[in-house]
Amino acid sequence: MSESRPFAYSVLRVVPCIERGERLNVGLVLFCRQFDFLEMEVSLNHDRLAAIAPDLDPEPVEARLAVIQHVIAGDPAAGALAQLDRSDRFGWLTAPSSTIIQSSEVHTGLTREPGAELQKLFASLVL
User: Fold this and answer.
1) Rounded to whole angstroms, how far apart are CA atoms 69 and 109?
2) What is the β-pairing status of strands 5-14 and 107-111?
3) What are the C-alpha distances in Å from 125 to residues 54, 69, 72, 75, 78?
4) Number of domain units in the chain
């Protein structure tokens, strides 16, 4: 069994109206340099979204989340951002923004299995 290594993660949130301060957790991205790991999980709950933003069409939100997933995965079709190294892609995603999809502050921890850690955090913080 390998030693625990540091990791960082951020929760992705849909923020339909900044003024109201409401947000919906929709994804989680986890980065672990020592395990060469950067992955993201996403789940947009349409009922919850409709409860805080009844007039917001979920399809464009899902499309934006899909683009982010392609960048995080390093998909060449996602353009120049996807070609950055994992650390830079994580930094790009977690930089403050004023778009409808925002990331939380970066949190850290230790893990032996970043994939399992991603699933555990995703289930706890998003699902």
Assistant:
1) 22
2) antiparallel
3) 23, 18, 19, 26, 27
4) 1
Domain that holds residue 40: 5-125
* Rounded Cα distance, 120 and 10, in Å: 13
Residues whose CB falls within 8 Å of the CB of residue 34, separated by 6 or more in sequence, listed in order: 5, 6
Q: What is the length of the chain? A: 127
DSSP tag of 3: P
pTM for this model (two decimals): 0.93
50 Cβ contact partners less than 8 Å away, ≥ 6 residues apart: 56
Tokens of 14: 């849909």
| Per-residue pLDDT tens over the stretch 18-59 | 888 899 999 999 999 999 999 999 999 999 999 999 999 999
Tokens of 58: 């979920």
pLDDT tens track for 94-109: 998 878 999 999 999 9
